[in-house]
User: Fold this.
Amino acid sequence: MRDLIVGALERTAGLTFFALEFCKKCFRRPFEGRELLNQMDEAGSKSLLLVVVTGLSIGAVLSMQSRGTLARFGAESVLPSMLALSVIKEIGPVLTSLVLAGRLGAGIAAEIGSMRVTEQIDALEVAALKPFNYLVVTRVLACMVMFPVLTICCDVVALTGGFLESVIAAGTDYRLFIDRAFADVRLSDVTFSTAKTSVFGLIVGIVGCEMGYHVRGGTREVGRSAMQAVVLSSLLILVADVFLVRISLALFGG
Assistant:
């Protein structure tokens, strides 16, 4: 138990100092603009299909599962509104971030970890090329920028999936569905719920980069660090979501 607590404290301290180092280097030269665009493409367009499939299944399944329950209480007409609020405020942002944590967190940790164990990062440091800016800052910023974009895509596709299920199951008119879906959605619901995924992107980027940047040993340790990056970033996303929802309720109400 003592070792577990000490290990958790050491990991927390390591991530904290790594995040502070990122904040410090983020505003210092060199600014790797081209590499940032490459990482945004890696995090964004190459994850789009995964996000689309996730969103479509979320919307269709949520609509199917909720229809029978709401019909028991004669409240089937509120299905579009419930679907929109559920997807936009919570399910879309969190599930998108967890899916991306599995893909990007492991990929970042494995890529940087492989460079560390093959001494490529050491060579860059010896050559005074500032590998932290090139490897870490670009990947973390790419995650922070692309997570909200992919969350919006997931929300749109999820609502489309819910609409298609409603058409097949109940023949719902698209104008009626849209009117009811967005009747209770506020601008603050969309903006805050989407913006908080930048925090999730920061978590995934920092955890993945830290795990890979400080890995020691051989290829076996690289795989282990990639697995730990996925687990830890997913856990931190869920914990951070609790605090962000509390802040949202304090600022904008229920």
User: Anything to note?
Assistant: The chain has a mean pLDDT of 87.
